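User: Could you go from structure to sequence for me? I need the amino acid at each position, not a summary. Structure tokens:
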């Protein structure tokens, strides 16, 4: 069982930036499809971004393109979510998830398809 840990959340003003990290105790995440998801207060969870194994092409939720960037570090141990131009509606708990099989696609974003392992989440609050 892969144990994922998210970090980097916090309070930020509108227009600010945060970088979230997802890691698994030194285990390489290069063999996994990784997705970022979020859940705002009182709302359902939604997909944010995903990246396929071995640094494949990332995919983003349509409403977040251009502001969020998912990437892997060179050591393939950590997956990041860089979030820029943050808005109050970006507030929520952000989760990373991993799938050993499959690839990053629309179903990953829309349904978290194949995501077997989930972290506990990190809270992002965008407020002045």
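Assistant: Here is the amino acid at each position, in order:
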């Amino acid at each position: 069982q892969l144990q994922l840990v998210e970090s980097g959340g916090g309070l930020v003003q509108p227009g600010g930036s945060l970088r979230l990290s997802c890691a698994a105790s030194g285990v390489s995440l290069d063999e996994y499809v990784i997705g970022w998801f979020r859940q705002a207060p009182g709302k359902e969870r939604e997909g944010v971004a995903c990246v396929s194994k071995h640094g494949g092409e990332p995919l983003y939720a349509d409403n977040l393109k251009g502001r969020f960037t998912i990437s892997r570090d060179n050591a393939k141990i950590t997956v990041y979510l860089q979030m820029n131009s943050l808005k109050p509606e970006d507030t929520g708990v952000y989760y990373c998830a991993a799938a050993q099989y499959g690839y990053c696609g629309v179903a990953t974003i829309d349904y978290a398809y194949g995501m077997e392992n989930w972290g506990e989440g990190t809270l992002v609050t965008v407020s002045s």
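One structural detail worth keeping in mind: Residues 106-111 form the longest helix (6 residues).
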